[in-house]
């Protein structure tokens, strides 16, 4: 799953540390999310979307696997 979290966070001029504090997660969690190494729980995705006043789909981009590639 891809995401626009880093782009959106920087547009709002918020540091990873500030976002982590608001969301009650570690800064490392924010970093891992932004780098695509970690997919958020549904609860965390909702918290992020609410914080930025956006829909989950505006932040997180789900792309289905190509069924022929399986």
UniProtKB/TrEMBL annotation:
Q: Which domain of life is it from?
A: Bacteria
> What InterPro entries does this protein map onto?
Cro/C1-type_HTH (IPR001387), Lambda_DNA-bd_dom_sf (IPR010982)
Q: Where is the HTH cro/C1-type domain?
A: 5-59
- Name the PROSITE patterns on file: HTH_CROC1
Which GO molecular function terms does the record list? DNA binding
Keyword DNA-binding found: yes
Keywords recorded for this protein, A-Z: DNA-binding
SMART domains associated with the record: HTH_XRE
| Pfam hit, one | HTH_3
Q: What is this protein called?
A: Transcriptional regulator
**Species in which this protein is naturally found:** Romboutsia weinsteinii
Taxonomy of the source species:
Bacteria, Bacillati, Bacillota, Clostridia, Peptostreptococcales
């Amino acid at each position: 799953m891809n995401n626009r979290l880093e782009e959106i966070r920087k547009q709002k001029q918020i540091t990873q540390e500030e976002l982590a504090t608001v969301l009650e997660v570690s800064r490392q969690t924010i970093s891992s999310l932004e780098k695509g190494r970690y997919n958020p729980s549904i609860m965390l995705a909702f918290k992020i979307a609410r914080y930025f006043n956006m829909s989950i789909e505006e932040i997180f981009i789900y792309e289905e696997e190509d069924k022929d590639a399986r």
